[in-house]
User: Fold this.
Amino acid sequence: MEQTHALGRRKAAVARVYLTAGKGNITINDRSLEDYFAEETLRYVVNQPFEVTNTAGQFDVKITIVGGGTKGQAEAIRLGISRALSDLDREAYRGALKAAGFLTRDAREVERKKPGQPGARRRFQFSKR
Assistant:
């Protein structure tokens, strides 16, 4: 099996995912999954596509990620892994991943701050006098 490449994005995070047949090793920016994500919930988010498709321990994953916070990075990785699995075997994995909602890009972004006010929507306090 050759290497499969996919891209995952969430907020400001961009993940490049390289999937190959292997023993289930996940490497993120040359660090292990446990080393990169200390929180158990974020490791769970990264492993969700493998749990849904029953392929845990069958693929080695090498990930390069830039930007964003930890939650956004974990969700970007989830999208990238899901896209790579879908490209690998459309008939076997795409249905389960789509039903779980892992192939949909979450398009919500932070709204920009506007000039003359303290935030995107927040206004300075109005004074009548």
In short: The chain has a mean pLDDT of 94. The chain is about 35% helix and 20% strand. The two ends are 73 Å apart (CA to CA).
